Amino acid sequence: MPHDLPLRAWVELDREALAHNVAVLRRLLPPHCTLMPAVKANAYGHGAVPVARELNRLGLQAFCVATAQEGAELRAGGVQGEILVLGYTHPQQARLLHQNHLTQTVVDHSYGMALEAQNVPLEVHLKLDTGMHRLGEGSDRVDTLVPLFACRNLKVTGAFTHLCAAGTASPEDRAFTLSQGRAFCTALARLEAQGCPIPKRHLLSSYGLLHYPELGGDYARVGIALYGVLSSPADLTRCPVTLRPVLSLKAQVAQVRTLEAGEQAGYDLQFTAQRPTKLAVLTIGYGDGLPRSLSCGVGAALVGGRKAPIAGRVCMDQTLVDVTDCPPVAPGDTAVLIGTSRGLEITACDLAKETGTIANEILSRLGARLERKWR
Description:
Structural class: alpha/beta
Radius of gyration: 23 Å
């Protein structure tokens, strides 16, 4: 699409905010640790290729993704550096990993041997389960991983675990998180004592870096914090640094219509005008990732620097908002669903609170038909 044409609905990215967040998070890093941005789920809805390329420009050379396909898309987009696949990849996709120079997570001994059997050279990181009980070999069973170091096709270049209670520094969460750190260190020491070197080790994610940087490691797998957001408003108040949101979500006004008092609008006639009312039709809907649960006044858009409540149900491709109390609105005007307008702001955390979820989900569900552009 030519870049000079008006867009239907789009994600707008702030380069300066991203650079600010990188600088702030770098200052929190423990010694000898570097950032490994999580650009999975299309960089939490921001656009994996443009974000990773910008991070390359800022000097970052390590990334993590959820799937081999995500890693391949980064390589096709010219992204340089190490790319670690955090999730499961079917062993029969080993060639895809090799061709795109991706580092694959080994979730346990049997999976590692299945990769070895593909007869394709691969670099791998070992995943250790220290308490989350998701992917990974139990940290008390690391002896089962020793044979992987003798494999002809696998080269173990790192090991990691995932902190599952690092979101706060409460006494209970702190005790559990520190116990995960100890279990991880003990497991790695056991491997090294058997002649199994671990060149890179990592356990910090966004919340780990914010609350437990003393746990150290070679990488910090920052995700949501990199994008200037945390999962909930309460988390932001506890955050030790000031982060800047990178993403805004915007759409056009397609039409403005007037309803008389008593007239209804939208699917199932869920909106009833209580007075002469102006409704604007926005070119965005739940097909673009705007949650349908924002319907019927739960959510709003910013139009002309005023809040315009959502009128009736959010549709798949369009959304009605009540602009009666807004300055004059016309087709082609811009509505802000996430972001700022004349001093007012709607954040991803606001949408998360209104819909009973976390900001990570709101952002990562933003749809593929939204064009991503730097401002």
